[in-house]
Design goal:
By secondary structure, the protein is an alpha+beta fold. Strands 2-3-1-4 form a 4-stranded antiparallel β-sheet. A hairpin with an 8-residue loop joins β2 and β3. α1 runs antiparallel to α3. About 15% of the residues are buried. The mean pLDDT is about 95.
């Protein structure tokens, strides 16, 4: 199993709108692609600094090919929507993790 992890720093000024949008629109849209088996939305307990909250959204895929398909076929449009709505108030970086135990 592969985890597609997206860590996002969310500015306090947009936090509530961002979180609602993620739960009600973005995460469901990602799941509707059929590339992932499940997901998990986590918030870091201690923010790195006082500007906002940091979240990790984890999407669980059967294999790396599902991740590649998602990144090629679906991610560009979904990422553009996120950027258009929140700009530099929600900054993300992505990592891939392999479940080993």
């Amino acid at each position: 199993m592969i985890i597609y992890n997206i860590t996002t720093k969310v500015d306090f000024s947009i936090h509530n709108n961002w979180l609602t949008w993620m739960k009600e629109e973005h995460i469901p849209a990602v799941m509707q692609t059929g590339m992932f088996l499940s997901n998990r939305l986590c918030r870091l307990i201690n923010p790195v600094d006082g500007d906002g909250f940091t979240y990790a959204i984890q999407y669980f895929a059967k294999d790396i090919n599902k991740i590649k398909s998602y990144k090629n076929d679906f991610a560009p449009g979904l990422n553009k929507q996120h950027q258009n709505l929140f700009g530099d108030k929600a900054v993300s970086f992505k990592t891939l993790l392999k479940v080993v135990a």
